[in-house]
Amino acid sequence: MKPLLTLENIDTYYGAIHILQGLSLQVNEGELVCLLGGNACGKSTTLKTALGMVSPKNGSITFAGEDVTKKSTSTRVKLGMAVVPENRRLFGPMTVLENLKIGAYVLGDADPADIERVFELFPKLKDRQNQLAGTLSGGEQQMVAVGRALMSRPRLILMDEPSMGLSPRLVEQSFEMIAGLHAQGISMLVVEQNANMALSIADRGYVLQTGRIVLEGKASELAGHEELRRAYLGR
Amino acid sequence: MSYLGQQLVNGLTLGGVYALIALGYSLVYGVLQILNFAHGDVYMVGAFLGYFVELALGGPTKSIVPVPIMLFLMFAISMIGTGLLGIVIERFAYRPLRGSSRIAPLISALGVSILLQNAAQLIFSANIRSYDTSSFIPSTLGFSIGDVTIDSVRITVLILAFALMFALSRWVNKTQVGRAMRAIAIDRDAAVMMGIDIDKVIRWTFFVGAALAAAAGVMNGLLLRGVSSGMGFVPGLKGFTAAVIGGIGSIPGAMAGGLLLGVVESLTQGYLSTNFSDFYTFILLIAVMLLRPNGLFGKKAIVKA
């Protein structure tokens, strides 16, 4: 399997606070990898570091065969990273269609065929395309956030807590959708607190604790792991 | 009736000029949350550039090109040149201060303002210049609606101001850079996550804002007001007032604020007092601030946790 995203020995600081401590992880081409962990253990920081929103003090980041450690977020998105941010972060006062078009910013202009593809995936959005994104329900907003990420034709989608703020039924739908995208061959790194749900659809997983990877392995192995069960799966 | 009509036309013309200046304040505030207090002086530079293009083409009486082409070149060259100045100002006066306290860019803006005024005085001397518009556009030229006559300079200014505002709306709503600009104004981090090159969009914002101010400067010259190094102060203040009345950061707000301010100023000059029209202008500002603190089109301020 070809590695698509590699983080190696990453140290990230916020001021004097050492957030990520020698973190290494990898997402291979076509893989769905989940990054698990409790509150404030550095999950979001890992995503932000991968995306270039925060720069690590030490370590290297390779994406699609290129060393992107010093590259801007814009460059990384151009190379094929896309993100579904925590809390979705839609542009609320803009329409659904405009949000999708913004997703295609790095391509220069949105391809109507890409917009059609998003509407095929989420038929509801087609009816709501001219509605302001901020007025949609949580589930619909999630669709826009994913659709927006797809608009840049990404090789890797980074998802930050896709279950956050959604009702249990919508969480299930959301994970079905993620599994569906994965089945289409899109590589994904999913950051989640909901370990059960994430492991049920992932190929591999990492467990993060206070900025360090403490466990890694096949999703099926992790799901049966005694220590993890006790710490995160609540049993 | 004709007097009122006349005042309204004058007011809309003046308001169009204010609106173009106000847009620059609001565009920049939208993406960077800074008040570019050098904007009035950018407008002054625009007026000077228009003046020198006029001279280069042979001057008001001996123009080597037909009048419409001369006007086109005056606007085009002034807008492009001043737009580039806007980019330079952003690069050297604001970008190094990004991420510092909110007061720092404000002080920097005042510095740029003083620098531009003094540089203009040094290079162009303190003499007040005039476009001498009536030498190449006869003031008798124009048309009448009922008793209201609009001379051709006013028509030109009015049409052009509205055309520029329309073009700006298209740019902001229909192009990727325009969309990116709004996205940055809404949620800057999310815009970065979408791969938007923030610096590039900010450069465009400064270019467009300064170019619109330059157009306003040339219009001001054509309306036969003097061109001098200090000319930017009052219009800059009025443009800022218009932007605040409309709701700083709001594009339709800046347009509406500018037009409203122009009409109010013109009506108070026509009916109340020529000397105290600025007094009424700022009374309007205070009244709007008291009744709608976020301006006519402003969003409710959201305090982020």
Automatic annotation (TrEMBL), chain A:
ABC transporter domain span: 5-235
Q: Which organism is it from?
A: freshwater metagenome
Q: Which family does the similarity line name?
A: Belongs to the ABC transporter superfamily.
Instruction: Return the protein name.
Output: Unannotated protein
Keywords recorded for this protein, A-Z: Amino-acid transport, ATP-binding, Nucleotide-binding, Transport
Q: Molecular function terms in GO for this entry?
A: ATP binding; ATP hydrolysis activity; branched-chain amino acid transmembrane transporter activity
Biological process (GO), any one: L-amino acid transport
Question: PROSITE patterns from the entry?
Answer: ABC_TRANSPORTER_1, ABC_TRANSPORTER_2
Q: Which InterPro entries match?
A: AAA+_ATPase, ABC_transporter-like_ATP-bd, ABC_transporter-like_CS, BCAA_Transport_ATP-bd_LivF, P-loop_NTPase
Q: Does the keyword Membrane apply?
A: no
TrEMBL record, chain B:
Task: List the InterPro entries hit by this protein, alphabetically.
Answer: ABC_transp_permease, BCAA_transport_permease
Keyword annotations for this protein, in alphabetical order, are:
Amino-acid transport, Cell inner membrane, Cell membrane, Membrane, Transmembrane, Transmembrane helix, Transport
**What are the BP-aspect GO terms?**
D-alanine transmembrane transport; L-alanine transport; L-isoleucine import across plasma membrane
GO molecular function terms listed in the Swiss-Prot or TrEMBL record: L-isoleucine transmembrane transporter activity; L-leucine transmembrane transporter activity; L-phenylalanine transmembrane transporter activity; L-valine transmembrane transporter activity
Where are the bilayer-spanning segments?
Answer: 12-35, 67-89, 101-124, 153-172, 201-223, 243-264, 271-291
The membrane-topology field of this record reads: Multi-pass membrane protein
GO CC terms in record: plasma membrane
Q: Indicate the principal place this protein occupies in or around the cell.
A: membrane
Pfam families linked to this entry: BPD_transp_2
What the record says about family reads: Belongs to the binding-protein-dependent transport system permease family. LivHM subfamily.
What is the recorded name of this protein? Unannotated protein
Query: What does the organism's lineage look like at the top?
Result: unclassified sequences, metagenomes, ecological metagenomes
